[in-house]
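FORM 7B - TANDEM STRUCTURE REPORT

SECTION 1: FIRST PROTEIN
SEQUENCE AND TOKENS:
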Amino acid sequence: MRNIQKIQTRQFIQLQIESVLLVLMLTMSFGVSANHGVNKDKFDGEVVMGYDVVAYFTMGDAIKGSKDISVEWLGGKWFFVNEEHRELFRADPAKYVPQYGGYCSSSYPYGDEHDYANPKAWQIVKGKLYLFAGNRTSNRWDSDNPLVETANKRWEKAKAGLLQQ
């Protein structure tokens, strides 16, 4: 009899935990942060710590841009290594803006939308730039994780709102 009660108690607790997790996931999947922006320095407004977001795609490397070759967009300063990159960005900034606004791609799917990323820890997956807190988090990240897919949908809504500003 005691074993049955223990099993029922465990099942009840497991059901409660699953219910809470489901509510959290649904809340995170439908909510879009109204104040979501791009990852920029609070003092000088450099986006992605001054790294050229176009260079990830064209040069396959994380390269610091020049303050002399820049664009103001979404309230931040975007730096580039050359004029060609700046013009590519101007023509289609949404193509180059990092997923989740340049915040850590490992944290964003779990609800931490403002965890800073290291521009040297990155991946391009399906034509989108993802930044991470470090190489360890980048290596463990799984783009096929259902939470990542949900986070991508949430980010697309947030990005659409940003692009309308």
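SECTION 2: SECOND PROTEIN
SEQUENCE AND TOKENS:
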Amino acid sequence: MTMSALRTKPAQNRLATVLRRYPLTSFFVLAYAFSWLVSLPYILSVWEVAPDSFIAGFMLKQWIGPALAAMVMATVMGGQPGLRELRSRGRDWRVAWPWYVAVLLGAPLLVLAGVLLLFGAPDDLPSVKPEVVGSYLGYFVLVFIAVGLPEELGWRGFALPRLQTRFGPLGGTLVLGLLWAGWHLPFFLTPDHGGGPHTDLSAVAANFGLFAVMVVLMTIPFSFVFNRTGGSVFMTALLHAAIDTPQLVWLPLLLPVGAANSTSGEGRLDLALLLTFGAVALLIVALTRGRLGWDRGTKAAAAETDPRPSATPRAHR
């Protein structure tokens, strides 16, 4: 073994020790760092600082960020059994059929209801054409694979069980909501969230504040679905796609919520989602008395226990 290899191995061991000791902190640092770094070239190009957009990196930020961070930490904490356990949650589709109805129909209707409550229906409702249905299904599959599944592997698959164990179901959910919202912060500098070099930064900042409140409240239904379906990341990924897809397909066709990718449109849509999902979140908290369907003895709670014991005590920070 060479001297360089001998020096590298202790360094790797020290890094693994730190990651095992602070699994939550390590996960969020990695998730933020991976996503923000891969998105930086595109953000700089939007602001005309860099010539190449590298849009592919920005589009893959969910896989390179939360998903990759979760897989790294699951491997560090539990070895290959830990990684297999994480992946199995993304394939855990065997849940009661009412959950599919609630997620696939209920979530899109809440999106639509929020916009209708806030802005009213247009004078002329367009007919539902076959191409609209086909477009919705196609976008749904794309959003599920590119956005819902990779984000949920991280936020719910790795972080939420540990946060609930440390802070309780409601406290852990609110912490996750704040960190989930914060992860989006640089993306508000791009047209995807109504930002860009010619936008009013004070309006963008106000939009982010509204978005953060909406995300924190929306995290409560996500935790409820996760807990009540036995820790199924597959179901929360479906929920994620069921919320995002109508915004891409239905709303531009049906309702004047603001020009696509505009600062005003972003704020209006976030406010509409805040109305309905915020009401559902408060109802869940009241009906479950803050437990959000969490039980320390369930499969969802058991995700906090890593398959391979670590020799280093975990601080859960």
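SECTION 3: OBSERVATIONS ON SECOND PROTEIN
The first helix runs from residue 3 to 21.
The chain is about 75% helix and 0% strand.

SECTION 4: SIGNATURE
Preparer initials: ____
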